[in-house]
Write a structure and sequence with these properties.
Layout: H1 2-60, H2 63-70, H3 77-100, H4 106-127, H5 130-143, E1 151-154, E2 157-164, E3 168-172, E4 178-182, H6 183-188, E5 191-194
Antiparallel strand pairs: 1-2, 1-5, 2-3, 3-4
Helix pairs in contact: 1-3
Length: 195
């Protein structure tokens, strides 16, 4: 009888232990699902905040207007950049949510990192000289420090400004030579403006 009582107690302990283990697993699964849902919601909110800030910055910089006037490009670059950034953030959120749920995401992480690295390398290599000139072009356009018709001296080049676009400034010297000065040089070196 005593052994039966012990077996029964061990059986109840086994049932309690199994029930406790099931409850712990159930609560862990519930916590993982809840945290994945919270990551998803917070990620979507963060993506909207970041894209709204980026959209506001690009609108204040008047990127579409400047590209349309200077390069005659009618591409809605503001919306394009914002959309690309938004989908990159969505993909990262998707990986975080799957990872939180315990779904193996190693391959997705590798794909995401490879795509991001390829995009960054492509942009850096393709536009390494163009980007500084473009940024300087925006600066020159917004500040209006140099205007068409001004006489300037930049890095030993003296002449009259014929045209300013986002990439370069065209200067005509006294000898009627046309010189194309990259805008990065205009913001990099000292510019002497004659009245």
């Amino acid at each position: 009888m005593a052994q039966r009582g012990i077996v029964k107690i061990e059986g109840n302990l086994f049932k309690i232990t199994f029930l406790g283990y099931f409850m712990v697993e159930y609560s862990n699964t519930f916590i993982r699902i809840l945290s994945a849902f919270l990551i998803l919601i917070l990620g979507l909110i963060l993506a909207n905040i970041i894209t709204n800030i980026l959209r506001r910055i690009l609108r204040e910089a008047e990127v579409n207007k400047i590209l349309k006037e200077q390069l005659k490009v009618k591409l809605p670059i503001e919306n394009l950049l914002v959309t690309i950034i938004k989908y990159i953030i969505y993909f990262a959120i998707f990986i975080f949510v799957l990872n939180q749920l315990g779904i193996p995401t190693f391959i997705l992480q590798v794909i995401f990192i490879v795509i991001l690295v390829v995009l960054i390398v492509f942009v850096v290599l393709a536009f390494k000289d163009w980007i500084p000139n473009l940024v300087s072009g925006f600066y020159i356009y917004k500040t209006q420090k140099i205007k068409t018709g001004s006489t300037i001296t930049v890095n030993g080049v003296n002449g009259k400004v014929k045209k300013i676009n986002l990439i370069e400034t065209i200067v005509e010297t006294r000898n009627k030579e046309i010189i194309h000065i990259p805008n990065a040089n205009i913001t990099k070196y000292e510019v002497i403006k004659k009245k």
